[in-house]
Structure formats: C-alpha cells, structure tokens
Amino acid sequence: MAELLLRPFAAIGNLTLAGLESMGRAWRLFASAAVSIRNTDVWMPLLLPQMARVGVASVPIALFIATFTGIVMALQASYSLTGTIPSYFVGTLVGKTMILELGPVLTGLVLAGRVGANISAELGTMRVTEQVDALETLAYDPLAYLVVPRLLAGIVMFPVVVLLAISIGIAAGWFTALQLLEMSSAEFVKGLRIYYAPWDVWFAVIKSLSFGAVVTGTGCYCGLQTEGGAEGVGRSATRAVVAACMIILCLDAFWAAVLL
Amino acid sequence: MERRREVLVGLVVVLGIAAGVFGSIWLKGGWRGGQTELRTAATSVGALVRGAVVKFRGVTVGSVGSIEVLPSGEAVMVEMRVLEELVIPANAAVLLAPESMFGEWQAEILDRGEFGLPPFLDYPEEGVLPGAALPDFSRLTATFDQIARNLTTISDRVEVAFTEETAMNLKGVIDNVSVVSDLLSEIIAQQTERFEDLAEGVDESAQELGAAARAARISFEHFDSLLLGADAEAMMADASAGLRNLRELTEDVGSSLGDMRSAAQRVDATFARVEGLLTALETPDGSFGRLLGDPALADGALEVLAEFRALLADIKENPGRYVTFSIF
Amino acid sequence: MSIRLREVHKAFGPKEVLRGFTLEVRDGETLAIVGPSGSGKSVLLKHVAGLLRPDSGSIFVDTHSVPDLSRKELTRLRRRIGYVFQFAALFDSMTVTENVGMGLRRMPEWDARRIAARVEECLALVDLHGLGDRYPAQLSGGQRKRAGLARAIAPSPKFLLYDEPTTGLDPVTTTVIDRLILRMSDEMGVTGLVVTHDMTSAYRVADRITLLHDGRARFTGAPDEVQAAGDEVLRGFVEGDPDLYFGRNNDGT
Fold first, then answer.
1. Looking at the structure, do residues B298 and B153 belong to the same domain, yes or no?
2. Where residue B21 falls among pLDDT bands split at 50, 70, 90?
3. Domain, as residue range, for B114
4. 3.40.47.10, 3.40.50.300, 3.40.50.2300, 1.10.1270.20: which CATH number matches C3-246?
C-alpha cells in the first residue's frame, strides 16, 4: 500500500533527476566545446562545409515558409482590420510580426527539424559505428572536429537565413497586399515604416543567433549521446528535434521578456 | 565543388546581411545624408518615443534620438537627428504632437510666428529650440467651453454699448453659428450612423447633441428675423439666449466628444466654420469686445479666441493629432 | 613492459563488466584476448586507448598512466597507438584515401605529398591498391576492415589494438588479415593487443592468449599451453562446449 503511494513520487523524482543529469551533461558538452574552440586547426577547415550544410541548404525551405507566412499574414491582417482601422495597418502587422516573431521562430522551428535532426542522425551514426572513437584514436578532438564547426555554423548562418526569410516574407505580404487586397504600395510601406524601430532587427538577429546555437547544440548533444544502433539514431534524431523546438519556444518567451 | 561551396556560402551570407542592413535602413525611411543634431526642451513630451519622426513643413527630415528628463526635473530634453542641409526658421520651435489617430507621436519643427500656441518652453541655453507638447482633445473642449462662457458674458454686456455696426457683426456671427449648428447636427447624424454599435451612452449624447443643435439653429433663425427688424434691444436679449444655447451646445460637444474620440477627425470641417465665426467676432476695426466698454474682458476674450484659433488651425491640418487612440 | 593493466574495474550502471582485470603485454609481443561476445573485450581495449576511464585500477602504456593523462598528453600518446575497430569505423563522408590519411594530417611534420605517398604505401600493404577513391559504402566488409587497418598503421604506431579484426570475414580474408597482423609485429616490431573470439585466428597471430572470463583474466599462456591446459572454462570456450564453459549443472542460462 505504502509502495503504491510512493510510486508516483519516485517517478517524478526519477524524471527530475534524469532531466537535471541530462542538462548537466549538455552544459558540460558545451563547456568542453567552448574550450575546444582553441583547436582552430581542427575545426577551421570544416566550418565552410558546415555553413553550406546548415545555412545555404536551409535557405530554400526557409524562404518557402516565409513566403507563405507573409501571404497569410497580409490576408489575415486585412480580414481582422476592419472599420476604423486604416488598411495600411496590414503593412504594420506583416512587418512587425515577420521581424519580431514569425521570421526567427518559424525559421528556427523548421530548421530544428531540418538541421537538428540531420546533425543528430549524422553524429548518432558516427557514435554507434565508433567513428567518434576512431576520431579520438587518430588524435582528433571530437568536440573540435564535430561540435564546434556545427555550432559556429549555426550561430553564423541562422541570422543570415532569418534575415533573408524576413525580407522575403515582407515582400510576399507586400505583393499580396497589392494583388489581392487592393492596397497601394505607398499605403503598405507607410504601415511598414510607421512603427518600425531599428531595435526590431537586432532583436531578430539576437533571437536567431540563439536559435542557431540551440538547434545545432541539441543536435550535437543528442547525436553524441546516441546508444543502440539504428533505432537509437532515430530516437536521438527525434529527441533532438523535440528538445530544440521546446527550447526555442522557451527562449523566444525569454528574449521577449528580457529584450523588449 | 569546394569553390562552388565557398561561393554559395559567401553569396548567402552577403545576401542575408545586405537584406538586414538595407532592409532596416529602408524601413527607417531611406538613406539620409549627413545629419546634424537639434535639441529642444519642453515641459512634457506626451507619448513621444525614441525613433519618432521629425517633420518640417510636413516632410520627414529626421528622427528623435534621445529623450531625457533634465536633472533639475524642470523640463525634458529631446535630441533630434535631422538632415544637415536643413535650414530652419530663425524663430523655430518644436511642437510634439500625435502624428495620426493611432497614437504615434512626432516632433514638428515650425515657425513660432505662425503658430502662437501652445505655450512653448524657452529653455535658457544656446541652441535649444523652444518646445511644447500639444494638449489632447479634452483640453481643447475645455477651451471651447471657456470661449462660450466668455461669449455669454460679452453678450450680457452688449446692452451697454450697441451700435448698428455691432449689430451687423453680430448678425455675421449668428449666421456663422447657424452654419456651425447645421454642420454639427449633420455630423452628429453621420456619427450616430457610423457608431451605432458604440455604447448606448454615446448614442444618447449624440442625440442630445442633435437636439441641442436644432434648438440653437431655431434660436439663430429667430435672430435673423429680429435683425431684419433692427430692434436692437430685443435682438440682444435673443442674442444672449442664443449664445447661451451655443454654450450649452459646446458643453455637449465637449462631453460627447470625450466619448467619441474616434469620431474626432470628422470635426475638423466644423471647426473651419467656427473659425469663420471667430473672425466675424473680431472684425472690423475695433473689436466687438472693446465696444462693450470693458477692455480687460475684451482682451481676455480675444486671447482665448486667438488661442482657440491657433488650435483650430492645427486641428484642420492634423485632425487625428488631438485624439490618442492606441492599438499597440 | 609496454602495456600493463592492474585490477581494472569498470561498471556500466549496475552491470559490472571488468572486475579486477590484470594483464601485462610485453614489448613487441602480440597478445590475444579471447572470450565470448559481451564479455567486455572491447571495453578493455577502449580503456587502453583512453576512450573509457576505469572506475578503479591502473592502466599503463609505456610509462604513461592512461587515466591520469591530460587531454594534450593523451593526444600525444594516441599518435603512437593504432586502433582497428570491429566494423572499421571508416568515416562515411571521406574516400578511403582521406580516411587512411586522417591520422597523418594531424601531424605537423607530414606534408601533403608525404601523406599521399604513405597512404599509397599502406593501401598497397593491405591490398587495396587502386581503391583509394572509393567511399566506405562502396567497399565490401573485408575491404573495409583492411582499410581500417591501413588507417591504423599509417602513422606507424608502436602499439596496435585490434578489435575483432577477423569477425564476420570469410576464411580467406581472415587469413589475409592474420598475416597482416603478424607482419606488423614481425617487420615493424609493433606491440599488438588482439581482441577476438575466433580461436583459429588467435592461435595464428598471438604469442600469448588470455581468456577474459567474468571480468577477470582467467588464464594466460602461449597457444600450446592453451591447448594443453586443464582449466575447464578455458577448454569449454576453446572447444565451444557450453556445459564446460558455464559449468555442468548450468544449461547455459
């Protein structure tokens, strides 16, 4: 009877401990990775290919999403803004939401799926086939060789991809306003500019920087933690995506509270 | 392959940064050449924020850099970055006011001579322009009310000295007031229609306004017929009554508009007519008030009129400025 | 004494894999550690290379105490250790040539031309001449193992650790690999530690054989001593007799 009562508490305790342990391991990984940055000769040559993989290859999907987000934002804004609110507010809504929220967050979430799963699966495969061990026996620092270039590529390329996505999203909203909402270019631009503050763009850049670190970081962490063959690789890819998405959303709220 | 990848990465990075940099510059309102700094001090800045636009003769010429309360606490110092080549009038002042009816404020550089009101703060420091924040709509209606009260007082004293000229002036006034009331009732009808779904109280006050306007109009029509008969005494009695009506009307306008802030942009047309009324009150040679043998009262009334007129001029230009309606 | 393990304990969670393992591998000899799958042979090997840290006990390679080395010292030591992985662990994203050259590229004294020459040499040594431009996925299992061996020997290590070098290979390829192991020790004086459960191969390549049983070294001796030994567990393993290996009253459970 007592055992039955204690069981839920034990479960919660286990879960908490496991979570904390996992967090501790992750932080240790990133701390070691930070130390490994000094091994420039190891990661430098790998940075460019990783930037291509993390950033360039993500541009099409990011732009695709931004385009449709822009269109939908414009249409929904005009649907919501009726009566006394002037139509140029469509521009304001599209611009503000794309820059502050949808640009960085949607791109972050999509890239969490694309980049995070990719990294996790790749490193997971390397882990279970002992390629990570092999790196070590060949006198390579696996953190410098595997984690650092990916992390840096994410940090550098995410803001770039997000800025492109924001531009395309706003352009798509603009085009929609002109073609479907019978607004004039001048009206849309007026709305765009009226509440624009330069800080908005910095906010987006800071957010996407952190998202880049989160997506590549969780990808690396989950990948290197992989155990148990092909199934384990799949599991850690899923875990990387879920964790990255959750952290992105929490961070999003955190930045909004801290920076706005 | 390697070459291709380098080029691709470079291209994406450059494009992304370019999108960020040029995009934000464009959103800020395009390239600005060399910029210089202007400063102004005001007792209050209303809802002005950093980055708000600075306008000169209606054209955006810069943005607000910083807003700081002076250590002494007596005023707020506003720094503006404006185009270097901008030549501003010798007696320039800065008016801080809402830019549109959605609450965003702007700083407008203007010629103080053309715009006597509101009271600009002359800060005793070289290079600091006098500044003032515009009152919002409630203060305007209060002024309106004061004018009406003064008008009543004046009309109470009209009996003291009444000439034919004055009578003709008064007739002009009344004509104008009649037009005003017409317009008001028309607006009220429009507004009632447009804001049907607003609170019932608004609807009610609108109807009251309509009734008041109709009453005013009837008395003014009475005025007209009296003036034709040139029975000065009877006419003045009626004038007094009519002006009381006007006062009531304006009070109603005040309270109703307090509720119907979003209707404000419509009022400008009306005020244009009111301005005509004020002109008529002041002209010709020697003002109406002076004829009444009480220069102090007359001066007071005229001051109020001038103030009111300045406000009206501004309301006409920027109807939305007097209404603060914030969405964000 | 070139590789020494003393009282090494290692547990993964509740599972004790090594329970006081003690072993000495002499300079220049090739020692085979045999034992059934899952007995902890690979774990042992990883301890020697510093990939795993023991819970307790000491591990010396030459004069270096492996668990106590700093990252930098460990890196330096690893340049002298070649590790042949069970499934070769070739880097999928690189060609065979790049794979084999990986270790050399970390060494400042090796320039690109010297590396290329050495890679060619090693590929020829393992009979993979002409396959350098292939990717690991395009190789057969035996070819992959040989490529992994080539990668391990490219930096001319003093120690070679083989993790199941012949597992899963046909008898002919097994012989090829075994000959390569012998060649390493005979021609280059490499100290070898071979982990295997293939007794034929162990007899062929090893100077001495150790049976890893229950987390400890149960028996160590030359191949002929192994064949002559009376130890039941050893005989059970060598002859593939579960009754002997696990004990008569135990049905292998």
1. yes
2. confident
3. 35-133
4. 3.40.50.300
Between chains, do B17 and A163 touch, taking CB under 8 Å as contact? yes
Contact yes or no for A224/A233 (Cβ under 8 A):
no
Q: Please answer yes or no on whether B20 and A205 come within 8 Å at the CB atom.
A: yes
Beta strands B105-111 and B92-98: pairing type? antiparallel
CB proximity B24 to A under 8 Å: yes
Q: Backbone phi, then psi, for B207, in 5-degree steps? A: -65, -40
Q: How many structural domains does chain A have?
A: 1
Contact (CB<8Å) B16/A197: no
What is the per-residue pLDDT for B237?
Answer: 52
> Residue B8: which of A56, A85, A86 has the nearest Cβ?
A56
Do B217 and B315 fall into the same domain?
A: yes
| C83–A139 CB contact, under 8 Å | no
Closest C-alpha among A91, A205, A196 to residue B26: A196
Express each pLDDT in C202-217 by its tens digit. Answer: 888 888 998 888 888 8
Q: What is the pTM of this model?
A: 0.66
Q: What is the DSSP string of A189-215?
A: HHHHHHT--HHHHHHHHHHHHHHHHHH
Of C80 and B182, the one with more pLDDT: C80
Residues 6 or more apart whose CB falls under 8 angstroms from that of A255 comprise: A203, A206, A207, A210
Residue A151 pLDDT level (bands cut at 50, 70, 90): very high
Q: Which of B117, B133, B149 is the last residue of a domain?
A: B133
Nearest to A137 among C78, C87, C90 (CB): C78
Please state whether at least 3 CB pairs lie below 8 Å between chains C and B. no
pLDDT tier for residue B228 given thresholds of 50, 70 and 90: very low
Burial B133-164 (b: 16+ CB within 10 A, else e): bbbbbeebbebbbbbbbbbbbbbebbeeebee
How many Å apart are CA A30 and CA C239, to the nearest integer? 50
